[in-house]
Amino acid sequence: MAKNDIICTGCPKGCRVTVEVEDDEIVNVEGYECPTGREYAINEYKNPTRILPSTIRVKKGEFPLVPVKTAKPIPKSLLIKAMDVIAKTKVKAPIKIGDVLIENILDTGVDIVATRNIDKELEV
Amino acid sequence: MQEYNMIVIGAGPAGMAAALEAEKNGMENIIILERDEYIGGILPQCIHNGFGLEYFGEELTGPEYAYEFIDQLDDSKIEVLTETMVLDVNDKKEITALNKQKGVLKLKGKTIVLAMGCRERTRENIRIPGDRPSGILSAGTAQRYTNIEGYMPGEKVVILGSGDIGLIMARRMRLEGADVKAVLEIMPFSSGLVRNKVQCLDDFDIPLKLQHTITRIEGDDRLKRVKVAQVDEDFNSVEGTEEWIECDTLLLSVGLIPENELSKSMGLNLHPVTGGTFVNENRETNIEGVYAAGNVLHVHDLVDWVSEEAEIAGKAAADYINNKLEKREQKIKITPDKNVTYTVPQTIEYTFGDKRFVKVFMRVTEPMEDVEVKFSNNDKEIISYPKKIVMPGEMVTANLPAALVKDEMEEIKVSIVKKVGENNG
Predict the structure, then answer these.
(1) What is the ipTM metric for this complex?
(2) Which residues in chain A touch residue B44, judged by CB atoms under 8 angstroms apart?
(3) CA of B343: how far to CAs of A75, B208, B340, in Å?
(4) Which residues in chain A touch residue B48, judged by CB atoms under 8 angstroms apart?
(5) pLDDT tens column, B42-63
(6) B384: distance to nearest CA of chain A, Å?
(7) What's the pLDDT tens digit per position in B111-139?
(8) What are the boundaries of each domain within chain B?
(9) A51 to each of A54, B200, B244, how far by Cα in Å?
(10) Does B175 contact chain A (CB < 8 Å)?
(11) Are residues A77 and A96 part of one domain?
């Protein structure tokens, strides 16, 4: 039987919830003090996901970077791999907030979208 | 000298929200002065998510949160002047500013909103002894380099301070390929949100060393290593616990200070706890028509509350110009009592009009559970609200209903106390 300690992020209290697993089945959950804690711990054990915020290089933009995020949470285990894809990407200004800059990253079905408008570089 | 109904100093979340709310309440002829080349304040560099849940009811990143207001400003008549540094403000509400293209500007405002935000404490503020090599910077500076300007501050990183900025930057540095050696926290608990501790440190196995600090810095041109020691309850380093950590970058996330040099030059006194000016319920300072909102007034943990607070100031300024306000015969003092370090506002000076309550912001002295936030006058309870959990790092708010405030009250005390009578039922 394996015990997984998970800290609930539902409120400042941060309950340490233990999820006990036997043969890939959750057999016991304890340590939570409200239903949010139980649900969070089960989800976090089964499929932990995160929104990944980062930046992408911009060509000919008013700023050298555009901030981006995954439009939806992606599996936690893919964060570093997703960063490798993001690091190799370059986009051209102008960029509008919400623009899809990378489609379906790592076949997750989730796009990388811009979170800021970036105008073209001013001609001088 | 050009005259305005409102001059806002700072185009961060507070300044933007104050100006927009003033316009919505019928004010015209508003200008915002911003020293940076873009508006939005610190938000555009806070590329992580977690903003807006309170204010917009959805989770946004910093740039997205800023955009909600920038977009409204574009559609408004509010004038915005970037690359404009305010050099002086006096008590006649006259401003001297320097603009990159226009040179020296002289402006006068019927109202002024102080929205200069805050700045980070530095190595000098906390007095770490040792060499003075490059590679030591505030977490916010590193954030701007990494997220706006496209520079990586270093490869082997130690972070001092486990507030939210420190935690967020630990993840950011790690995601950009740095080796984040440790986050050090002098207190026995992290002051950051639980979520940030989990998603920024635990997710990447970055160690958080509680009750640890840096006692020495070494390096010639570039930082080489820092000496880390455990501390006791009095924050003195414990002998025999010292160890050196090799690193080329040290990020400091050791607190924020409201940036009130201009407020002081107007003759405003600063609150010893908040570091901001004293304000009444309209966020008006001791000079009539001069308001303060956002982190310049007191450091907030959520931008959502900055926006809300700035709107109070913006609406009040519009009402002031339109002669809609009526002063009380006698001010009511709002005083922090048991377990409350400070409150904002500190006074109630105007009659309520159509206002149904005054929202009071406060901080608790230490983490507590099952408490109530209590307003009282002459030891008699006015109203109390139960709270399941309160933490010093998370602002507590409670509404003081207008209907329960009597004209003869001179002082209302605010306390946070353990709930009583739990076992009676």
Answers:
(1) 0.91
(2) 67, 116
(3) 42, 31, 8
(4) 53
(5) 999 999 999 998 999 999 999 9
(6) 21
(7) 999 999 999 999 999 999 999 999 999 99
(8) 1-119+255-325, 122-254, 326-425
(9) 10, 12, 35
(10) yes
(11) yes
